[in-house]
Amino acid sequence: MRTISAAALSGLPVPLPELGTQHALATVMARVADYERQLNGELTLLERLRQDAPTALLEGGSHDMPPFR
Question: At 43, phi and psi to the nearest 5?
Fold first, then answer.
């Protein structure tokens, strides 16, 4: 595999978007991260409910799930 030296790499130009575009991208990325945290929380809750469902059905409910009727 061919490699590139750090000196050659440091000499390459790296174009950056305008500052307003950078801010817009950061805002979108933050919203996506918030949404991901929300979805992970919901997934955790659903997994807990799924695990508790058999016991809740047999024993008449739990704090997260009402008894089956």
Answer: -65, -40
pLDDT at 68: 54
With respect to residue 26, please indicate whether it lies within any of the assigned structural domains.
yes
| Residue 47 in domain | yes
Contact in structure between 65 and 53 (CB atoms under 8 Å): yes
Spell out the residues 6+ positions from residue 65 whose beta carbon is closer than 8 angstroms to its own.
49, 52, 53, 56
User: Which pLDDT belongs to residue 30?
Assistant: 98
Query: pLDDT by residue (tens digit) across 6-41?
Result: 999 999 999 999 999 999 999 999 999 999 999 999
What H or E segment, with its residue span, contains residue 19?
Answer: helix 19-59
Which structural domain, as residue segments, surrounds residue 48? 18-59
- Establish if 35 belongs to a structural domain: yes
